[in-house]
């Protein structure tokens, strides 16, 4: 099924095999004996327990070529899953803090995007995420560094440790992002309360909410999301791996859909959470057995919620419709 992926962190696509290959290439050592030992560390009990490992592994990314190879490996997997458009997060502060120039990160990722478009016809854009565990002034300095490259950045986001770092901490930062004419998104309501979703909308001007699965804890917030057509980029395997929900069968996805929220499905950090987008779809289907119309709706939402022109959206949705027509289940109920 053709679809867009709107919530994937490029650093979270670093597979153990590539991590060790890059460590060797750069003459550095990872604090794990081998790939199996690294994989064994993928037992998380919270967002923070994952983030500690995610930031540690990112240390193997040093050169423009490393970032290119990382991007290309993700795009190959995504294209194989039917992703035809991806809006991909990157965390420049994770790299600039280690002395890697912003330009090296950006140009390496762009090299990968260009090669991926040539090889697989997949369209990719970059969304710069700020790390919310850092201060707003540090994030403003990161924005200063990015500004000379603004034409190459598709939008801005907010990620990292949610609890204790509400969206309101970044009001000035996101006002500047919006003034630059870029769409903004924010992680909210993953581990944090529904109030963080409201802050992301009202204070940051977020156009999509990343995760947002805790909206079900506040009926007013959930009703608002549905009424305003705010897209939620839901990441089912991430949520179960990070113990946001104990089991897939307990995920709030059916409640979000039933309330009329504009849900999309995504992989978040596929190297760490047990799968790429189709693995997420299979896990959801195993738990909830959605019908074809629901799958059409989810895929269509991914295109409608993307930050591309209306003409580009129409082209992407046309490819989805052709797929459903060929499968003989068209026109689906929308
Ligand atoms: O799921 C996430 N939440 C917050 N920050 C992140 N950074 C990578 N993945 C995530
Ligand atoms: Zn995320």
Automatic annotation (TrEMBL):
Which superkingdom, per the lineage?
A: Bacteria
Q: Which cofactor does it need?
A: Zn(2+)
Q: Where does Zn(2+) bind?
A: 7, 9, 187, 268
* Residue positions binding substrate: 269
Q: Which GO terms describe its biological process?
A: adenine catabolic process; hypoxanthine salvage; nucleotide metabolic process
| Single GO molecular function | zinc ion binding
**Reaction catalysed?**
adenine + H2O + H(+) = hypoxanthine + NH4(+)
GO terms for cellular component: cytosol
One of the Pfam families matching this protein, by short name: A_deaminase
Give the note describing cofactor binding and stoichiometry: Binds 1 zinc ion per subunit.
Task: Indicate the annotated site residue(s) for Important for catalytic activity.
Answer: 211
Family annotation (CDD domains): ADA
> What does the record give as EC number?
3.5.4.2
Q: Quote the InterPro entries the UniProt record gives.
A: A_deaminase_dom, ADE, Ado/ade_deaminase, Metal_Hydrolase
Q: Adenosine deaminase domain: which residues? A: 2-321
Homology family: Belongs to the metallo-dependent hydrolases superfamily. Adenosine and AMP deaminases family. Adenine deaminase type 2 subfamily.
Biological role: Catalyzes the hydrolytic deamination of adenine to hypoxanthine. Plays an important role in the purine salvage pathway and in nitrogen catabolism.
Q: Which PANTHER family match?
A: ADENINE DEAMINASE (PTHR43114)
Database matches in NCBIfam families: aden_deam, PRK09358.1-6
Enumerate the HAMAP family for this protein.
Adenine_deaminase
This protein is called Adenine deaminase
């Amino acid at each position: 099924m053709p679809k867009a992926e709107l919530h994937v962190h490029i650093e979270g696509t670093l597979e153990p095999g590539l991590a060790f290959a890059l460590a060797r290439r750069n003459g550095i050592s990872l604090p794990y004996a081998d790939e199996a030992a690294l994989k064994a560390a993928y037992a998380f009990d919270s967002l923070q327990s994952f983030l500690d490992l995610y930031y540690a592994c990112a240390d193997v990314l040093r050169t423009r070529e490393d970032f290119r190879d990382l991007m290309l490996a993700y795009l190959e997997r995504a294209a194989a899953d039917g992703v035809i458009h991806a809006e991909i997060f990157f965390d420049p502060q994770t790299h600039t803090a280690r002395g890697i120039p912003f330009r090296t990160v950006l140009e390496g990722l762009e090299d990968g995007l260009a090669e991926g478009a040539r090889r697989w016809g997949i369209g990719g854009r970059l969304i710069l995420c700020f790390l919310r565990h850092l201060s707003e002034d540090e994030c403003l300095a990161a924005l200063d560094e990015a500004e000379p490259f603004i034409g190459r950045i598709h939008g801005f986001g907010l990620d990292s440790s949610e609890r204790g770092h509400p969206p309101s901490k970044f009001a000035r930062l996101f006002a500047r992002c919006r003034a630059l004419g870029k769409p903004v998104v924010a992680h909210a309501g993953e581990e944090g309360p529904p109030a963080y979703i409201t802050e992301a909308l009202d204070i940051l001007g977020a156009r999509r909410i990343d995760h947002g699965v805790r909206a079900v804890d506040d009926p007013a917030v959930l009703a608002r999301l549905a009424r305003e057509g705010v897209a939620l980029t839901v990441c089912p395997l991430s949520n179960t791996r990070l113990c946001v929900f104990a089991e897939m069968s307990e995920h709030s996805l059916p409640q979000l859909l039933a309330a009329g929220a504009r849900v999309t499905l995504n992989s978040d950090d596929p190297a760490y959470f047990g799968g790429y987008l189709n693995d997420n779809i299979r896990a959801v289907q195993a738990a909830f057995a959605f019908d074809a119309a629901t799958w059409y709706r989810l895929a269509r939402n991914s295109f409608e919620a993307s930050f591309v022109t209306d003409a580009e959206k129409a082209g992407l949705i046309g490819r989805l419709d052709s797929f459903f027509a060929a499968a003989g289940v068209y026109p689906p109920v929308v």
